[in-house]
Design brief:
213 residues, 0% strand
Amino acid sequence: MNSSWLKQHAWVLNLVVASLAFYHYQKAGYHRPKLSLMFIFASLPAAFYGGTLKVDGAVYDTLLSAALLFAAFRLATTQHDEVQLEILPPPPMQTTVPIGASIGFLSGMIGVGGGIFLSPILVLKRWATPKAAAATAALFIWVNSAAGLLGAQLSGQLTLSVDPLVSFAVAVGLGGFVGSKFGAEKAPQSTIRWLLIGVLVLATAKRGIDLLS
């Protein structure tokens, strides 16, 4: 399995999980449309272009692992209660455009939705609570994954294997439904924060294993 095959299948699974996550967080009232659109505006074309590229290399994996680990470290060492913390208004376009475009391009190149990078930024910059960040990240992931798939299709790289994809889609769909429903309706803000840290650490570990194998 090459990197193009892996990232394309990851995008399809992202569409399943992100749809469920966005549904639950939006239904619970955590979605802020203006905040989401300001980042998606620039990420969509960037993810599309990134999806047309084929990128491999140990240096790239190393840089990605470092970025994920740094985001987890910042979240873990920033001590405050998000429920009581004043949330700032959405940032201006001159801030959201470079952030959205950079994450979108990275998402298109490596096959992630980008929410794993956007969520820590939203929380650390106080633009959203962890649950509001989860809602925006879910929509961000869906849009970037769809754009990446379209880019792969138009560049002649799309190679999806239906049988394993269906099996994995059912599994991640069930997990995504339960997890997002719990996160949106039951879990406190601090739990969502630490779950995000855990996801970042696991993603870093996976990249490290891939790098060493």
